[in-house]
Design brief:
single chain; mainly alpha; 7 helices; 69% helix; 0% strand; elongated
Length: 177
């Protein structure tokens, strides 16, 4: 995919069609939703609330998922060394760290808060914030569309781990005998 393959040409065409189609100040603001100082405090507040309300294991799993984001993304960026859409001399654009940060922070926060709201709004807000981050990154030309898609696919299992951690363990029946 980095030097050739069936996805490279459509990725580049889509990027060329989208980049700078929205004013830069708008797209930069959207992309900034994936910055660590923006997304991680949202997660930390949700973790504190969930921990206080008894979802300790899930809160810790959410923190672990966030810690795993750079552990997964940074080596892939170094290994692929993909250039950026507007900066062909720079490298390290695949996968998108901002998308991964947004997805794990906002998605985990939604998973932590949803048991207490019993409403779909936390998931909807997480989807909107993550989607806005991804759109901002692509429209501004900070990332190729496949950089963003790779982060979504990479972080899905991390969110699944947070979701599973919310489940109550089954009581183990001891057989008498």
């Amino acid at each position: 995919m980095l030097a050739g393959g069936p996805l490279l040409a459509p990725d580049e065409r889509l990027s060329r069609a989208l980049v700078r189609s929205v004013p830069d100040p708008v797209t930069e603001s959207l992309a900034d939703l994936g910055n660590i100082p923006v997304a991680v405090p949202v997660l930390l507040l949700a973790m504190a609330y969930a921990f206080r309300r008894g979802l300790r294991r899930a809160a810790l799993a959410a923190g672990a998922a966030m810690v795993l984001v750079p552990a997964l993304v940074v080596p892939l960026k170094e290994w692929t060394a993909r250039p950026g859409p507007l900066e062909p001399w720079a490298a390290g654009y695949f996968p998108s760290g901002h998308t991964a940060t947004a997805m794990v922070a906002y998605g985990s926060a939604a998973l932590l808060l949803s048991p207490f709201t019993r409403r779909p709004w936390p998931a909807a807000v997480a989807l909107v914030l993550t989607g806005a981050t991804a759109a901002g990154l692509i429209l501004r030309g900070f990332h190729w569309p496949l950089d963003v898609l790779a982060s979504v696919l990479l972080c899905g299992p991390l969110l699944w781990g947070v979701a599973v951690s919310r489940l109550r363990p089954r009581s183990i029946r001891r057989s008498s005998g």
